[in-house]
Amino acid sequence: MTRYMAKKKGAETSAAPSLDVNWDAEAATFDDEPDHGLRDPAVRAAWAARLAAWLPEHPGDLLDLGCGTGSLSLLAAERGFRVTGVDLSPPMIALARAKSADRDAVFHVGDAAAPPVGEQLFDVVLVRHVLWTLPEPGRVLRHWRGLLRPGGRLVLVEGVWGTVDPAGIPADRLTGLLAPLARDVRVERLSDDARLWGKEVADERYAVVAVV
Known about the structure:
- By secondary structure, this protein is an alpha/beta fold.
- It contains 9 helices and 8 strands.
- Strands 1, 2, 3, 4, 5, 6, 7 and 8 form an 8-stranded mixed β-sheet that branches.
- Helix 2 runs parallel beside helix 6 (90-99).
- It starts with 7 loop residues before the first helix and ends with a strand.
């Protein structure tokens, strides 16, 4: 689940985002944010184009951790990926299931740090705005890497929000954590693409694609 977004408006001035959010209660209005619901065709197209560049050319199995209402899951499924989504919030999962009801996608209530997928392996682990909220990100990344098939990839969308007391994970820290886990790590800056967010943003937003 994109944990910071309910407090995102403050993050664009000087306040850091809050982790103290009731995500079950937020589910009904979660998709009102442009980059959550992707209801604006321009925002949706921007995310679809980014995913097309980040994901493998040939569709496979994709695990969307902290999937929220499943907007990115749906985009991946539309590209032919077999999607498994995981989120802690049952109302979020219910909305994700409804969005992808006619797609090759399944959704589970569970912890992104330890997803309930058994021994299943994936070609892609996709995570947006979740890692920074988790304790011991290095340990979590090692676990996520273990969910990938050889040649699979982690696609991580992260950032740093707020100026007075910033919260998040800087790109250089994340790439350092990934260095011993992946043979290729690429950073793509996202802050200057207003189409992704439905408005101009001033904080640090980026994606990392790490091929193992």
